[in-house]
């Protein structure tokens, strides 16, 4: 745990599905909870029930609760709910009084100026934190991989983008968002399972689909060959003792990343997005970027993804002189942004770059735009 002038450094990474929080200098977050709040469905009959439940408790009580997810596509959509979530993490999970902490907060590379001001305002006004640093997610992912320049392909539950980073600064005009994310893949698997007679519709059943996707799905090296080959069905045991059999659905679902038209999506593949993003950057950085492609996010953990991506990118650059592709798939890439924030927040060289409470009181929330580009 990194400390500075009697204050502890805390790292926050709010994802659309899960929130990671912990202390700077540590390898893994101390808490990882669902980014959700539960409210009792029948407001007049809530005696004995808490008004709001958060994280795992909200999931456990979803039979009687309505669940709200305050983060969507990497952006905060309900500030009151997020403030409750931050309070829960500070006091119930990390057991740290926020007025004795400085916060490294991970943000989406396309976060608006207004959202940056709002995060800063709540942290200083409501939680009275000592200092704050807004770290752009792709730059932190590269820090976690030991780089300062490269291209990050982030694929989370409802957020997916490609972002080139040069010397720690994401290139905003070359950042490309995609509609193919973890939720899209789950919906694709749901459709495929429905075609063979398995219906997954309730929230609990969708969670089972998430487990099937994570445990059994893989990316085929050669899709056309995999389709015509004999695929043995694999049994997946359900909580009630029954089981489902899964065959070609295992590789047809992730193939959506490379062939979106399979689900009739009118959007580019991840290979097209990466190449387009690099083309928007200076020509002299092309070789550097192709040689430093880093995967991040929970939905990038699919087996065989990095191998297939390398194959497809090599096809794109085979006629380009002195350009080689290298795809780095860290084993803990679902935590890469948090880990990068943990590394950066523990470095003494960052001490002059935090936004302090004094600066906030002198200049207001506008100061955030001068400190963090």
From TrEMBL:
Keywords: ATP-binding, Cytoplasm, Cytoskeleton, Nucleotide-binding. One of its GO terms (molecular function) is ATP binding. It comes from the Eukaryota. It holds the Pfam family Actin. It is found in: Cytoplasm, Cytoskeleton. SMART domains: ACTIN (SM00268). One of its GO terms (cellular component) is cytoskeleton. Signal peptide: none annotated. Its main location: cytoplasm. The keyword Membrane does not apply. The keyword 4Fe-4S does not apply. Belongs to the actin family. This is Uncharacterized protein. It comes from Parnassius mnemosyne (clouded apollo).
